[in-house]
Design a protein that fits this description.
- This protein is of the alpha+beta class.
- It has a single domain, classed as Nucleoside Triphosphate Pyrophosphohydrolase, CATH 3.90.79.10.
- The chain is built from two helices and seven strands, in the order ββββαβββα.
- The radius of gyration is 15 Å and the shape is globular.
- The relative contact order is 0.30.
């Protein structure tokens, strides 16, 4: 009997929302979905907890710094086929931040900006599903 192993890439994403119903998105600067809007996030480094990776990636991509203790877990998305590069599993966290918090694109993001939840652009990957789930998380 032969066994087949699949490499799974581990990532962390953040849904940052404001009291006035805006969500922080980045414009991706690389494939796949180059030029599309997505939640900030990225790979979890070796030995790093996904919560720490979420905080780090959020700061690297948007300049927004949050206390790790203020992140609320939303869930894990790991469906096969959710990323065209291969198998990816992402832990998602919710951050509630003050209205008009300043953000600046950095790292792999072309742009970082607040979008009104009522008029979002199409989102990359399964980020629409992730966002919908995050908005149901209670304080």
């Amino acid at each position: 009997m032969s066994e087949t192993f699949e490499t799974v890439h581990y990532t962390a994403d953040v849904v940052a929302v404001t009291p006035d119903a805006h969500v922080l998105l980045i414009e991706r600067g690389w494939p796949p979905y180059e030029g599309c809007w997505a939640l900030p996030g990225g790979h979890v480094d070796a030995g790093e907890h996904s919560r720490q990776a979420a905080v780090r990636e959020l700061a690297e991509e948007t300049g927004l710094r949050v206390d790790p203790g203020h992140l609320r877990p939303v869930g894990t998305w790991a469906e096969p086929g959710r990323d065209p590069r291969g198998r990816y599993a992402t832990d998602v966290y919710l951050a509630r931040v003050p209205t008009a918090t300043a953000v600046t694109a950095g790292d792999d993001a072309r742009t970082a900006r607040w979008w009104p939840l009522a008029s979002l652009p199409p989102l990359a990957f399964d980020h629409s599903d992730i966002l919908a789930a995050a908005l149901t998380v209670r304080r």
